[in-house]
Amino acid sequence: MSVTPLPLPPQTRHVDRHGYLFGQKIAASMSPLFHKTIYQALGLPWEQVLLDSADIPQFLELIKDPKFYGASVTMPNKVAIMPFLDELTPECCDVGACNTIYLRENAEGKRIYCGTNTDVIGIRESFYRNIADPDAVFHDKPAMVIGGGGAARSAVYALSKWMRATQIYFVNRDREEVEAVIAECKARGYGHQLVHVETVSQAEAVEAPGAIVACVPDFPPKTADEVRARATIEAILQKERKGAMLEMCYNPNPYTELGGIAEREGWNVILGTEAMIWQGLEQDKYWTGIEVKDLPLKEVSEVIAAKLSQASKL
To answer: How is residue 80 annotated by DSSP?
Structure first.
C-alpha cells in the first residue's frame, strides 16, 4: 500500500529566528508580510513562514527547533492544537480556539508552549480605534453577530466581556450552528444574553444593535436558508438607528457585498483588515516582548493600505 509523503517543512536556515502560519488554504494570507514588516522595522532577522498543513504531529516536532519563536494558527487547526499545549490563557479557554502560540520558560529554564486567542483583541480594537464615541454608538446597547464559526465565538467574547453589549443577536443560515455556539458560550459563562434572530418579523421586533460583527464568507445567498438569513440581516440594517459593523471577511477582497449593503444603509463599516492589524500586533507583543504601543503601527498600516489599494471596491 502506498503512503502519501508528509509535506516538506519550509526552509528556515536563512533567518535567526522563525515562526509559522500553521493552517490550510493560506497561500494568499497577508500574515507573513504583516509580520515581516514589523521585524524589518525593528531590525530583527526574523520571518514567519507558511506551513500549509493540518499535520499536528509534524508541527509539534517542528516547533521544538531552538530558533522557533511562535506561530499563528488558523483553520482547521485552531481547536485541534489546544490539547497539545502546556498552558492556555483565559481568552483561549473561553473562546475554545487558539490562534496564537507563544513561548515562555519556567523556573527550570524549560520551554513552555502557550496558547492564546488574539482574535478577540482584534475585534475589540477595531471598534475602539475607529469609533470616536463608543457610548453613543455601541456601549450598553444590543449587538449582533452574523455567522456561527470560530470568528463568531471570538466576537461574542469581545462584545460580552469588553464592549458592554446588553444582548447579542445571532443571525446565521444554520440553526444547529447557532445553538451550538449559544450552548458553548453559556457553558463558559458569557453567553446568557445570546438571542437567535431567525426571521424578518423577529428582526423588525428587536431593538437596533449598536455593533455588528459579520463573520461569514463573501458569497451571494443561494439556498432558502441563506436567503432568509440575508433578509433578516437587511431588516436589522434598515432600522432607524445606525451603528458600526466590522466585516471580518477580507480575503480575497475586503469590500464585500454585505459591507456594501450596510454602507448604503448608513452604517459605519470597518474593514476586516483592521481586526487583522490589531490581532497581529498583539501576537508580536507576545513574540517579541515589545508592547503594542512601541511596535511599528505606521509601517504595517501603510503596507496593508497598499494591499487594499489593489482591491476593487464594490
So the answer is: T
Query: 278 is in which domain, residue-wise?
Result: 17-116+274-312
Looking at the fold, whether 200 and 280 belong to one and the same domain comes out as no
Could you tell me the pLDDT band of residue 1, with boundaries at 50, 70 and 90? very low
Query: Quick one: how far is CA 206 from the chain centroid?
Result: 27
**For the sheet containing 168-171, what is the strand order?**
194-196, 168-171, 143-146, 211-214, 244-247, 268-271
C-beta of residue 232 within 8 angstroms of C-beta of residue 202: yes
Question: pTM score, two decimals?
Answer: 0.90
43 within some domain: yes
Rounded Cα gap, residues 10 and 30, in angstroms: 17
Measured between alpha carbons, how far is residue 218 from residues 108, 243, 256 in Å? 49, 21, 6
**CATH (domain of 72):** 3.40.50.10860
**CATH code of the domain in which 170 resides:** 3.40.50.720
Q: Quote the pLDDT of residue 294.
A: 97
Other Cβ atoms closer than 10 A to 304: 22
Domain count, the chain: 2
Mean pLDDT of 193-204: 96
Query: According to DSSP H, which parts of 107-171 are helical?
Result: 119-128, 134-137, 150-161
How do residues 47-61 score in pLDDT, each as one tens digit? 999 999 999 999 999
- Residue 175 CA from chain centroid, whole number: 22
- The count of C-alpha atoms lying within 13 angstroms of the C-alpha of 130, restricted to the half-sphere facing its C-beta, is 22
